[in-house]
Amino acid sequence: xxxxxxxxxxxxxxxxxxxxxxxxxxxxxxxxxxxxxxxxxxxxxxxxxxxxxxxxxxxxxxxxxxxxxxxxxxxxxxxxxxxxxxxxxxxxxxxxxxxxxxxxxxxxxxxxxxxxxxxxxxxxxxxxxxxxxxxxxxxxxxxxxxxxxxxxxxx
Length: 155
What we know:
- The protein has helices at 2-12, 14-49, 72-104; strands at residues 60-61, 70-71, 106-107, 113-117, 149-152.
- By secondary structure, the chain is mainly alpha-helical.
- 3% of the residues are buried.
């Protein structure tokens, strides 16, 4: 029964659903990129290199006893697929992090934006939980309960 309860808790977490949606969107996006590479980029390379229309000229080595042989063109297509997907994921993560950073900023009374910095021990400079009166790292007694500080955003 404990195993079933743990599984229910795992499934009901919001990040599991988010992850599933991300995987589904990623699979759909991968299909689009694969189509781009197979139907536009590879034929363009074939046209430039003078291939026979089915493979990139000089990039496929026939191996006796096999149907496909060694196909460097397919390998290059897979590399192009990976690079396109990796670049798009990089741009998405960068945009998400930028958006997250902007929403976390606080606008001061002076109209400037500030980032909230986690509390730190003034002696060992390690992170300390908000409200702590003693550092868990160096065990020093803090002069006052730990609280976040505001740091001006430089843009």
